[in-house]
TrEMBL record:
Ranges where the NAD(P)-binding domain occurs: 8-177
Protein name: NAD(P)H-binding protein
Annotated source species: Streptomyces rhizosphaericus
Highest taxon above the source species: Bacteria
Entry-linked Pfam families: NAD_binding_10
């Protein structure tokens, strides 16, 4: 059997990719920590359980690779996984990387370099997800509950991208193993326009009628909010520090990669908001 192993197969990007690939008749194995009992092609996969890796890879010739979430160093579990994929003859790996590099996290850069070094393997460096503005992400949950965005990013802009456009780009690279990905081994994936949090709030206000304000805070306070949301201290601090980079303008990047790979432009933030307008309903929760 050949096909695509989708790690993180029940996540925002992975689930959309599974749907696209299966819609095109591509065999897919959905890997996740809690596989669905109703999907015969679902398999248990846990980065902390190496014994699950070989079983997930066996028989697959392509892999969509989602590294461990909320990790500042993905290499300890992912390095051996890639070695096993190479040993088993995997022809293509598409890594879901990030355009926004966490500070003091060289492991992510090392992982991307390792993938790029293999013929036919590709890195997708995705910008910030539009889905972050939806619950249960801390940003989206605060909008839903309190009608506000707290940020240390100032007026800095990000090329927010819909996870479904990331999935479409990955599908274009994974659907047919005989189509070479071309000379490029690294693609920056963004939406069509850089937007600040103030821009995003204005679009939500205009499209939904929900009043959303932006509150400026410091990076330390932001890290505390992320810890309160359940993130580890190291990851919370790194994620909050990213907002300093956004404020400085270093994440204001826009590319044509989605159009180049899929033949259609990425969704705008206004389109995304219109589609999800009902998900920012007021809960009546008190301010905190």
């Amino acid at each position: 059997m050949t096909g695509v192993l989708v790690t993180g197969g029940t996540g925002k990007t992975g689930s959309a990719l599974v749907e696209l690939l299966r819609g095109n008749g591509v065999p897919v194995r959905v890997a996740s920590r809690n596989p669905s009992a109703h999907d015969p092609d679902a398999i248990r996969f846990d980065w902390d359980a190496p014994a699950t890796h070989t079983a997930a890879l066996r028989g697959m010739d392509r892999v969509f690779l989602v590294p461990p979430v909320e990790s500042v160093d993905p290499m300890p579990p992912v390095g051996p996984f890639l070695a096993e994929a190479q040993r088993l003859g995997v022809r293509r790996v598409v890594l879901l990387g990030s355009a926004i590099v966490l500070p003091n996290a060289p492991g992510a850069l090392e992982l991307a370099a390792r993938v790029r070094a293999r013929p036919g393997w590709v890195v997708l460096r995705a910008s910030g997800f539009m889905q972050n503005f939806l619950s249960p992400h801390p940003v989206g949950e605060r909008i839903r509950r309190h009608g506000e965005i707290r940020t240390a990013a100032g007026d800095g802009r990000v090329g927010w991208i819909d996870a479904r456009d990331i999935a479409a780009a990955a599908s274009a690279l994974l659907a047919d193993p005989d189509i070479e990905p071309g000379a490029r081994r690294d693609h920056l994936l963004t939406g069509p326009k850089g937007l600040s949090y103030q821009d995003a709030a204005a679009i939500i206000n205009a499209r939904t009628g929900r009043s959303v304000r932006v509150v400026t805070i410091g990076a330390d306070e932001q890290a505390a909010h992320y810890r309160a949301a359940g993130m580890s201290a190291d990851f919370a601090a790194a994620l909050a520090a990213v907002e300093d980079s956004i404020r400085a303008g270093r994440e204001d990047q826009v590319s044509t990669a989605v159009l180049d790979l899929t033949g259609r432009p990425p969704r705008t933030f206004a389109e995304f908001v219109q589609e999800h307008a009902g998900e920012w309903g007021h809960t009546g929760a008190s301010e905190c």
